Predict the structure.
Amino acid sequence: MSRLLIALVLAAVELVRSSSWEMVQVTLASENYGNNMKYALDDFHDLFDEFAQQQGIRFHRGNFREIETFIKGLPVAKYGLRGVDCEQFRQFLSGVKAQKYHLQYAAVKCGPMTFSFCMAFSCAPEDFLFRNATTSTTAVTTTVSPTTSTTAVTTTVSATTSTTAVTTTTTVSAKASNE
């Protein structure tokens, strides 16, 4: 039984490492509400430009797709990226200052796994989660406390098969820098 659990956890971790031509789906939600989506899209493109510059890559029509924008009346956009290491993009997003890009929520979907980042106090991750992630779900919730200047990140990885369910939870707290 323990071998099966270990194999299942290793398989879930391996799924995060997608090939360079698999589509990595990114969902970004802006804190800028209103009818003008232009400002939110400009912020989102700036975020992708910063990532591309750090990685030494260039986004173009062949590897960057804007899938959907202004979802349910909210300034939300979904993108598809090819040739991007999903783990590197996830790490990049976890280090982004939400205020710089006016982000309320971000999610990265790598194959069957989804990494979610709640970057605002009024954010409800379940409003933005991918609905198709049935075999494996990952949720990362970030909460920033203005009184203690700490950031708490909770990561939950769940993998489910017909007979076995595995859940791993990690909690990290750190002082936020005032840059």
About this structure: The chain is about 25% helix and 35% strand. The two ends are 48 Å apart (CA to CA).
